[in-house]
Amino acid sequence: LPVGAGDGAVPSPLLRQDDEQLELLERLDFVVRNIVELRKEVEELRNSLQHLAVEIVGEVRTHLEETQRMTRRKKFAFSRDRSDSTGSSSIYFTATSGNTNTDDSEGGYTTANAESDYDRESERESEEGEDDLSCDTVRTVRRDSLDLGPEDESPLLLDSSLEEGLGQLLEQADRLHSGDEQDKREGFQLLLNNKLAYAGQQEFLWRLARAHSDMWELTEDADERRSYATEGKEELELALQKWDQSAECHQWFAILCGLVSEYESIPKRIQAGYVFKEHIDKAIALKPQDPQLYYLLGRWCYQVAHLGWLEKRTVSALFDAPPTATVEDALQNFLRVEELSPGFSKAGRVYIAKCYRDLGNTSAAVLWMDLASELPGNTKEDAESERELEEMRS
After folding, report:
1. pTM of whole model > 0.90?
2. pLDDT tens sequence across 202-221
3. What is the Cα–Cα distance from 386 to 376, expressed in whole angstroms?
4. N or C: which end of the chain has fewer CB within 10 A?
């Protein structure tokens, strides 16, 4: 209430205090409401993370069980078709010298692969007097099979003509991979056409996986892209069990894991990030002078360094040891690329500029932007980098 009446009246100090207290109470009420809402959101997030954790455990267990079943099944699981000729020497079966059994059992046949899942059944049903399989037949089966398993103790040996043909094939595949869109499609089909003869060769398999990556890039349909990425990854899953010391196998397996993860759930994408880093590190250890590997590692570090708060919390909730990387780590890898191969790619220089910008070094960022502008754009990634350059300049 005013102290006095008339024009000389002034507000009471008590009234001002009441207004301040009312405003303070309103602010406190606003804070309390926000805290309650935040508490609800945190509780929902916790429940979601717990659900994701349970889901991941179930998926991992299912995957391990499927992997074990597939490993047992892929021990040269040849077709069980038979030949009507008792003198047949097909790549699937060899006829025995005994009488041919015409019922549904396989009494008169033994599989061409001594390691197949049907050995025990064949041994039980075989009769005395059956001939053992010749080594030539086994070698023929292994060379002609499209599904060579990782259980082979050593890579298949090619005769001189096939070995010479493989060298020419690999050279042509590399040339087509470096070409335009039509060349890459032709290279993919070329490798598919020769899979029958060279599916057991390390240099052939990682190039076939690389061709799947090319087709993923050239294809627009989401289902087809996923199919190409998945098939390429499967080619190398078996290869890595046999050739763990191949830098190229590790490199393209990491790349294809990243492509496949784009169609997976968030937990699987996070898990794929761990797999990617693991195989890139192995590839670098085997081939430390390859600039492409440091570029891929730099990309990984940059993405991890820019994870949002919610993404970091999700990763921390799902994994005991979340991935860690800084912009400085990414910058060192991109600079290593330039050290090994100056002007390796426009995209690499753009990333260097972005790293310097994030670190607050504006002059260095401008310098690398200018250096990036000098390089031609040969890939889709380079085209995207060109757009990023324009945005950074604006």
Report:
1. no
2. 899 999 999 999 999 999 99
3. 10
4. C
Of all residues in the chain, the percent with pLDDT exceeding 70 is 70
* CA dist list (Å): 214 to 217, 227, 241, 285: 5, 13, 24, 25
In three-state form (DSSP H/G/I as H, E/B as E, the rest C), the secondary structure along the chain is CCCCCCCCCCCCHHHHHHHHHHHHHHHHHHHHHHHHHHHHHHHHHHHHHHHHHHHHHHHHHHHHHHHHHHHHHCCCCCCCCCCCCCCCECCCEEECCCCCCCCCCCCCEEECCCCCCCHHHHHHHCCCCCCCCCHHHHHHHHHHCCCCCCCCCCCCCCCHHHHHHHHHHHHHHHHHHCCCHHHHHHHHHHHHHCHHHHCCCHHHHHHHHHHHHHHHHHCCCHHHHHHHHHHHHHHHHHHHHHCCCCHHHHHHHHHHHHHHHCCCCHHHHHHHHHHHHHHHHHHHHHCCCCHHHHHHHHHHHHHHHCCCHHHHHHHHHHCCCCCCCCHHHHHHHHHHHHHHCCCCCHHHHHHHHHHHHHCCCHHHHHHHHHHHHCCCCCCHHHHHHHHHHHHHHC
DSSP β-bridge partners for residue 89: 94
| Vertex 261: Cα angle to 318 and 291 (nearest 5) | 105
End-to-end CA distance of the chain: 59
Per the CB < 8 A criterion, the answer to whether 199 and 166 are in contact is no
Q: Which domains does the chain have, with CATH numbers?
A: 173-288 (1.25.40.10)
Residue 50 near residue 57 (C-beta atoms within 8 A): no
Tell me the pLDDT tens digit for each residue of 321-342. 777 899 999 999 999 999 999 9
